Amino acid sequence: MEWYMILAVIGIGFMAGFINTLAGGGSLLTLPLLIFLGLPANVANGTNRVALILQNMVAVGSFRQQKVLDLKTGIRLALPAIVGSLIGAQVAVNLNEEVMEKTIGALLVVMFFIILYKPDKWVKEQVRTGSVRSKTSWLQAVLFFSIGLYGGFIQAGVGFFLLAALVLGAGIDLVRANPIKLLVVLVYNIFALGVFLFNDQVRFGIGLTLAIGNMLGAFVGSRMAVKRGAGFVRIILLVTLLLSAAKLVGLLDPVIGMVTG
Fold first, then answer.
1. Is position 112 within any domain?
2. 39: left (phi > 0), else alpha (psi -120 to 50), else beta?
3. What's the rounded Cα separation, in Å, for the pair 117 and 70?
4. S-S: 18 plus which of 176, 221, 236, 238, CB 3.0-4.6 Å?
């Protein structure tokens, strides 16, 4: 890659790491970026895990240093997510590139509307009104297995689902939920990465470059929360989602053809 592309990858990685640490959705930026850089959709999906694992190591370490991480609860909830992630990752590696691109494009459209709905604010409202209820352990296992299944398959936007599951499904307050969310993602992605590695769907060069930005963003995000920044990030995510989804499902092909032709 040219030096300016390396800087761009690190810059977008920084934004993704910051977003992932505060709420979720950073992969909605990095997956389209990796595909734009020429990686097949399946390989982009696997390569993205390298950055996520290193990003979450930094974030979890920072939260643990600040003594806001419930390690025991995080590991307990991560176990069913690991099982789900192994199945989800195996499904992902077996999809051909065209189907994977269309799948990612469709999921980006779905996530557009989820982000538009501001799911993080909805969760906070449930906490404020006292609507949080801790579910029984077997229901938690099913819930986190399902989230692991989705996370292993595509990862994009899983932070929103995890935050909701931790607060509404496990009865954990928001202060403790965010670091546990990052720990769960860290643990199950280690196993999911193994599946992608076994199927030769990981490119460490660009994955480690992206990880530099992700780790920096995770460190900053774990140390601060900026309301104004969250609104700005949401706008970037929405625009990126629309353009990326349109490209992946083929809606921009006529426009690209006119420009390049």
1. yes
2. beta
3. 29
4. 221
Domain count, the chain: 1
Flag whether 234 is in a domain: yes
What would the two tokens of residue 127 be? 């906490």
> What pLDDT does 148 receive?
95
Does some domain include residue 165? yes
- In this prediction, residue 47 carries a pLDDT of 97
> How far, in Å, CA of 131 to CA of 116, rounded?
22
Range of the domain at 78: 3-247
pTM above 0.70, yes or no: yes
Q: Is residue 145 part of a domain?
A: yes
d(CA 61, CA 244): 32
- Please state, in angstroms and rounded to a whole number, the distance separating the CA atoms of residues 136 and 156: 27
**CA nearest to 163, candidates 24, 7, 45, 52:** 24
For residues 95 and 42, the answer to whether their CB atoms sit within 8 Å is yes
CB atoms within 10 A of CB 221: 28
- One DSSP character per residue, 130-183 reads T---PPPHHHHHHHHHHHHHHHHHT-TTHHHHHHHIIIIIS---HHHHHHHHHH
Per-residue pLDDT tens digits for 99-126: 877 777 777 777 677 666 655 555 555 5
**Contact present, 47 and 206 (Cβ < 8 Å):** yes
Q: Say how far apart CA 85 and CA 91 lie, in whole Å.
A: 10
